[in-house]
Amino acid sequence: MQTTSRVGAEDAPNTVTAEGMPAARRTVDGYLAATFPWYGLDEAFTGPRRLMQVGTAADGTVQHGSIGHGDEPSVRADAGTEKQRFAVVVSMASSPVRRSGDGTGVLDATTVSSAAWLAGSGLLACTWPPQMDHALRDDWLDQQTETAFELADDLDGPAWSVLSLPVDGVPVPFHYRESEYGWVLAGSALGGVYIGAYGRGMSAYGLGFSVIGDITTYA
Fold it and tell me: Angle at Cα 168 formed by Cα 89 and Cα 192, nearest 5°?
């Protein structure tokens, strides 16, 4: 699950990189470079969708990425975070234990726990208790991130329940948990992909997932 770079989709569409390539195009190319299918919410969701970011290994191999649905998550105090309605779907390639691209180490196998960790850390990244001083947020985030990692490593523990949701029309069991900041879930899909998701303001119980036929339509 180790990554060395992320390509963000929050850049404005007309932003141009140092290489002269529009940032939006660069982001789409990151998704197109993946060797696994991408998942998003199924057609029952009719709101806005967006590319967010991809994560790559040291050798540039795309390992995971996120698709946003609904409002754009924000930690800004003036953004009305308590009123935000969004769900983010994380697709992660299933990979065995393998040597790193530079040959200097070994990368762990990816599992459903890996997807749960990515989803949990994603929710934390767009969370900020409104009563907290800005100077304390880094300490809070470190503590909460460690907790999210421990929870993801214990999917059979009491913090998680099982929720059945459709993936390409087929019911699939997901590990699911709620907190005061939102919800997180993780499970498996066909095609060697783990699905993680997190959100706030939208109920997870009515969600369904489906493979994305043309990722360029999300740019």
Answer: 70
Task: Identify whether the C-beta of residue 54 lies closer than 8 Å to the C-beta of residue 31.
Answer: yes
Q: What DSSP assignment string belongs to 55-109?
A: EE-TT--EEEEEEEEESPP---GGG-GGG--EEEEEEEE---SEE-TTSSSEEPP
- The CA-CA-CA angle for residues 193, 196, 201, to 5°, reads 150
**179-194 residues labelled b (16+ CB within 10 A) or e (exposed):** bebbbbbbbbbeeebb
Tens-place pLDDT, residues 80-130: 456 789 999 999 998 765 555 555 554 566 789 999 999 998 998 887 666
Q: Which two tokens stand for residue 49?
A: 């969708």
Q: How many CB atoms lie within 10 A of CB 83?
A: 9
Q: Is the pTM of the predicted complex or chain greater than 0.85?
A: no
Angle between helices 137-152 and 112-125 (to 10 degrees): 160
More confident residue, 76 or 186: 186
In single-letter form, the type of residue at position 41 comes to: L
Q: What angle do CA 34, 117, 136 make, to 5 degrees?
A: 120
The set of residues, in sequence order, having a beta carbon less than 8 Å from that of 143 and lying 6+ positions away, is none
Average pLDDT over residues 191-198: 92
> Are residues 74 and 81 in contact, defined by beta-carbon separation less than 8 angstroms?
yes
Q: Residue 10: what residue type?
A: E
Closest to 89 measured CA to CA, from 178, 202, 181, 7: 202
Strands 86-93 and 62-70: antiparallel
